[in-house]
Amino acid sequence: MLVGLISDTHDNLKAVEKAVKLFNERGVSKVLHAGDWCAPFTLARFRGLEADLVGVYGNVDGELELLRKRAEELGFHVAGYVCTLDLDGVKTALFHGHLEPFSEAMARCGLYKLVVRGHTHKPLVKWVGETLVVNPGEACGYLYGNMTVAVLDTKTLHVEIVEL
Fold it and tell me: Considering the entire predicted model, what is its pTM?
């Protein structure tokens, strides 16, 4: 299964539209959003997504309950601050990553094959023991000027960082 990974959209509606287009073109089945949507209105730009969307809160997200409600209205799911899920047998943890000791612990605990995080705005693909850690970077492009997302193949655990 192909999974789209996105984080730190920070209300950049054009970036969200580009990401949705890319994920649809690639045929991803699920998209994981690692937080920092910012405002609930950003969710509406995911409306054309042809995949399930699961996300978590980031450290700068506002109106958390409204964010969760808007997601549900659109058929998406915002799980809170941490979400664990099974992606075709790949036990996965999804969170924003602004608490670095928590991020490190999740990668090292041995419970997850995949850890998806955001917050740093820098793309990252690395193995920590038997756990693949992925940060798709910043979809918004605000800090480093590169609007990036990632596409993960759950069968091979190959990750491609894609510039929007």
Answer: 0.97
